[in-house]
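Subject: Glucosamine-6-phosphate deaminase structure
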Amino acid sequence: MRIVRAKNYDDMSRKAANIIAAQVTLKPDCVLGLATGSTPIGTYKNLVAAYEAGDLDFSQVKTYNLDEYRGLPGDHDQSYRYFMNVNLFDHVNIDKANTHVPDGLMEDYEAACAAYDAAVAAAGHQDLQLLGIGNNGHIGFNEPCDSFIKGTHCVDLTESTIQANSRLFDSIDDVPRQAYTMGIGTIMAAKSVLVIANGDAKAQAVHDMCFGPIVPSCPASILQLHPNCVVVADEAALALCPAE
Ligand code: F6R
């Protein structure tokens, strides 16, 4: 696991966008695993700017997002499909047919989750998987639990995640209690992983991800076993990590 220190959120966002841009430049038909949330917004802004400057071409890129709230349609303004359209897909020359987000309204969800994993595998797995990290160490919506769950599945969100995500909803009661998420096995199958984190609320989770025991109570800790994982984090998020 390589740790790259960023000065602040903007620096983290530029560094992360540069890594993703290098991936798209080196392999124009690459498969990107993408994340939502507050952390990647600046990264996506930098990618849009690079596209507008003529430096990036997304026409052959395929994307698979990590997760989606159960019960939210893609046009709901808090759905992750909507987030991806607004923050990235609507602003670059990606073919929307090549963008994939788990369907929050899937009916036979076990079959649909298995189909999502099969589609990621059939695409050759993610060349690069972008991840944020939850205050509780979750990746995707793989919440702290007793075991690492391999495939895409439905999860009950923890109170801490519902609380953290309520800032984006009118009221905490509007936050869905369940979500679909890529599993740990699907994430670990990516050829490279880029984790981004900023702010002191993430400091404990970042420490445990990088230096703690590899345990499902901190799902991100499994990334210590990934052969090609880079963490780009700002000073506040790295505050509890050893200096070098
Ligand atoms: C979102 C996702 C989550 C977030 C995490 C951090 O697709 O997979 O794991 O990355 O909850 O969220 P923010 O960036 O809002 O702090």
